Amino acid sequence: MDITILGIESSCDDTSAAIIKNGVLLSNVIASQEVHVKYGGVVPELASRAHQQNIIPVVDAALKDAELTIDNVDAIAFTRGPGLLGSLLVGVSFTKGLSIAKNIPMVEVNHLQGHILSHFIDLPDKEVEHPAFPFLCLLVSGGHTQIVLVKDYLDMEIIGSTIDDAAGEAFDKCAKVMGLPYPGGPVIDKLAREGDAKRFKFAKPSVDNFNYSFSGLKTSFLYFLRDNMANDDQFIEKNKADLCASLQQTIIDILLKKLIKATKEYKIDNIAIAGGVSANSGLRGAITSEGLKRGWKTFIPEFKFTTDNAAMIAITGYRKYLNNDFSSLDVTPIAKMGL
Ligand code: KG4
Ligand code: ZN
Predict the structure, then answer these.
(1) CA R_g for the chain
(2) Domain total of the chain
């Protein structure tokens, strides 16, 4: 029997809908919200309003791209959390309405599980290799930085986590102090390609176990810029590429150190990365070369599945559907949640 899942993602500033049939992606539509750029970060109230405007056309487009109608959908998977409450509420309420109107069951999805399970999205035109269980996943996004022990599709354990800022936040905040546009991660990535990553040294934290910290790096970066700008107000402008390359390398070094420690302690050499920061070309390259050196089998997600998307929500919904794990109509969004 065919199983068709409509996935809906609205946890932050991307409104997305996707269709997955028997694990294979048929469509994935993403409406990104430009409105936040001029504020240098996501404005929650504006995000909720934009989701309201986008959600119907986005779902409509996902169905059309897949050449299906809503009557072909067996379940609607939606992001329950974590994320911005107002943004989540739009997706949850829309899903409830559609579920009642069309008598289609709902499946709630944890956004973080979604990022990790993006490694299991099959494509119609290309063979995709999936990680074998157990594997370790470095989950790096704008809101989260974690090392996750993935025992099965829906059985995951966070073994390390940031105690303050997320890696994506470090990219975004440091970009902001350099006067770069939001989100800073992709901009730093691009500028870093022209720069010397060894030129500047920034603070690397020492935290326990497999945990991370990025707030010290952010502060040391800020003071470094302030001190240098006092002597030369063109300092940032003149050294932008080297600053970006050195900062990016520091973040990568911090991420890899704990990941390597975890692979040794857990004796696992299936390693995946996921989340918005896994789009970073430096990190992708570093994981690949570290993997070659250490005999890991590495899994780098398709670029389009790194940042927020509904395909990852639909694939997670598909796995939950197979487990008969449905949500009731009184489900509410949750802003902060673990795995
Ligand atoms: O997963 P995501 O889309 O949203 C969250 O769940 O947070 O991640 C967004 C984060 C932002 O901080 C953004 O700057 C970062 O991912 N990001 C990148 C790159 N592309 C997106 N960071 C570094 N390099 C990139 N190429
Ligand atoms: Zn995300």
Answers:
(1) 20
(2) 2
